[in-house]
Amino acid sequence: MIGDSMLNSKALAALMFTSAYVIFSFVFSVLPASADVDWSLAPDPPERRTTHMGGANGVQSITFINPTNYPIVAVYNVQDKFLLESNEVTFYPSPVKVPAQTTILAASYLAKEGIKQTGIGFITATSFANNTSNIPLSPYIIPIKKEALVMQAPNKDHFKFWMQKLTSHKGIKKNAVDFDVPIGTAIYTMAAGKVVSVYEGSNFGCPGIECVPYGNQVEILHKDGSIGSYSHIRQHGVVVDLDDYVSAGQLIAYSGDTGGGGEPHLHVEVHAWQYDDEGSTHLSTLPLTFNDNDGKVLQISEGDYINASSTFGKLINLITAKR
Predict the structure, then answer these.
(1) What is the pLDDT along the chain (323 residues), one digit of tens a residue?
(2) Peptide bond preceding 95 in cis form (omega within 30 of 0)
(3) Kindly report the CA angle at 72 between 250 and 256, in degrees rounded to 5?
(4) CA 196 to CA 225: how far, in whole Å?
(5) C-alpha angle with apex 128: 123 to 132, nearest 5 degrees?
(6) pTM to 2 decimals?
(7) H helix and E strand count, the chain
(8) 149, 179 contact by CB (below 8 A)
(9) Distance separating alpha carbons of residues 321 and 155, to the nearest angstrom
(10) For the chain, how big is the Rg over CA atoms in Å?
(11) Which residues partner with 220 through β-bridges?
(12) Which residues are paired to 123 by β-bridges?
């Protein structure tokens, strides 16, 4: 009876807190929108791997540009309709290995006589990931040690009615996870590997997708060939260097609010190449599970409090688990 009474009182407290949060969220939602982005404050975006699609004189081409110090793998698929309109000249079949500081013309397409091309028909992806087979799923180390709300995750089972619905994780990003953390939160590696990309010079961000290129980021190549990516890091908030080997659970950076998103948070993902039985290759984020401090595997959902230490966080997780 005492336990039930305590739970009921805690549940009532949580309900009161949630109601207050809903009211606050409503008031906040009707406030005037912020001013337009001041692009004069934007830094020069980092020099990253890029794909150029286009051409002239009826020839469409696809070129992969890798200005980094590490090789990348690039994949391109050509839409069937475009193939019917064009004669294909392939120089490097997909997937293409692009060495460091190298530009590769992968393929060109010349319009067939009497047919007008209706657009560029390529779908592409590039990554430092170098796995040559599908990677078995396994749990990772939680990238933060403080309590945090899971803002966005592919599992929506524990979504709370007072949360804002976020839908930015689509396509390749479908299995990425966002944690609601304040600026300056310590970030730890989810798995061991080598630091292959660091950008930390930006102090610029905005809610829109147009600010994504200005987000600070660290990418780590894992031993299995997958890439662990940590985004929205604060300016000069990275504490490891390019080429460093890092162990699982090592401090690598501090969180921020740079890039797209509009509020401080940590975006993490692990992506790798996926191979299907038909022989095609595509880039995809892997489903993320984590080991807790007791070695148990955590299946997280939006609305969960990871590393719950506060009474509120523990209570919310308890109530959610009983639904």
Answers:
(1) 333 433 344 343 333 333 333 333 333 333 333 457 888 888 887 778 788 777 666 678 899 999 999 999 999 988 777 777 788 888 999 999 999 999 999 998 887 887 776 666 778 999 999 999 999 999 999 999 999 999 888 877 777 666 666 667 788 889 999 999 999 999 999 999 999 999 999 999 988 888 888 999 999 999 999 999 999 999 999 999 999 999 999 999 999 999 988 889 999 999 999 999 888 899 999 999 999 878 889 888 888 999 999 998 998 888 877 55
(2) yes
(3) 40
(4) 12
(5) 80
(6) 0.84
(7) 3, 23
(8) yes
(9) 14
(10) 23
(11) 195, 228
(12) 77
Fold of 135-321: Glucose Permease (Domain IIA) (2.70.70)
Nearest Cα to Cα of residue 234 among 181, 306, 169: 181
Residue 115 contacts residue 125 (beta carbons within 8 Å): no
Long-range pairs of 213-218 with CB within 8 A, sequence gap ≥ 24: 213/45, 213/46, 213/48, 213/259, 214/42, 214/43, 214/45, 214/258, 214/259, 215/258, 215/259, 215/260, 215/261, 216/256, 216/258, 216/259, 217/259, 218/252, 218/253
Asked whether 57 and 108 are in contact (CB, 8 A), the reply is no
**Do residues 137 and 289 make contact, with C-beta atoms less than 8 angstroms apart?**
yes
Chain centre to alpha carbon of residue 220: 13
- Eight-state DSSP code of residue 5: H
Query: Is there a contact between 64 and 98 (Cβ–Cβ < 8 Å)?
Result: yes
CATH 2.60.40 for domain 50-127, yes or no, is: yes
